[in-house]
Amino acid sequence: MSQRSMNRLRAEEISVGYPGRTVLDAMSLDIPDGKVTAIVGPNACGKSTLLRALARLIPTQGGRVMLDGRPIEKQRSRQVARRLAILPQSPAAPEGLTVLDLVRRGRTPHQSVLRQWSRADAEAVERALSLAGLEGLSSRMLDTLSGGQRQRAWIAMALAQDPELLLLDEPTTYLDLPRQIELLALIRQLNRDAGLTVAMVLHDVNLAARFADHIVALKDGKVRRQGPPAEVVTAETMQEVFSLPCTVIRDPVHGRPHVIPA
């Protein structure tokens, strides 16, 4: 069986756009199972559009997104939500929610008119709060949290869905560098300890190289390079994708490639 047929989430020749503009042009892409994938590229290259298309939040104009071997658009929304969770950039919640209120909303795909709140729901919420390191903050109001704590709360809500795939659109936006490192370390830990397959859009190539197993470099709606960090984060790729003259060295602490702009 080929690697392409084994990965649970993949795009097959998808085209996505808006009136008068094509954003993704016949793009094919696999999200490797059990890995952390970082999607990088210059502004307006289609990173967020790709993530939204993979989650079926926007329709494709050609090609198809496959989830577990079936076209995602032919699957019921509730079934998709039980396997795949997406956290958009800068998510918003109604005023007056506590952390617990928000995380409980992650159980919606598992409930119905005949199946309301259950012990399994409570256990899933408790587990999500624990994984995100928020056990002591469950009663806090969302608007009283720091930026990093708030992002953890949103991730906990996604984890409460019990997904096998987690898509994150620029999860480090508005966080200072220590909080970025903290959040990406949490994502890495969730991948390793909970077995989550993760795909996330990141702006910082050095952070992508440090925390991801697989990097996809986009430019002008096309995949220019993809593979392990050492194969993608090269001076040649940085010039091709970002028009950035640079030197790439081996990080002496983590052994990952590190970009030094010229």
Describe the protein's architecture and organization.
It is a single chain. The chain has 262 residues and is of the alpha/beta class. The protein has a single domain (3-93, 162-261), classed as P-loop containing nucleotide triphosphate hydrolases (Rossmann fold, 3-Layer(aba) Sandwich). The chain has helices at 3-6, 47-54, 77-83, 99-104, 119-131, 147-160, 177-194, 205-211, 229-232, 235-242; strands at 9-18, 21-31, 36-40, 62-67, 70-71, 84-87, 165-169, 197-201, 214-219, 222-227, 246-250, 257-261. The strands form three sheets. Strands 6-7-8-3-9-10 form a six-stranded mixed beta sheet, with helices on both faces. A four-stranded antiparallel beta sheet has the order 2-1-4-5, covered by helices on one side. A two-stranded antiparallel ribbon has the order 11-12. Helix 5 runs antiparallel to helix 6 and helix 6 (147-160) runs parallel beside helix 7.
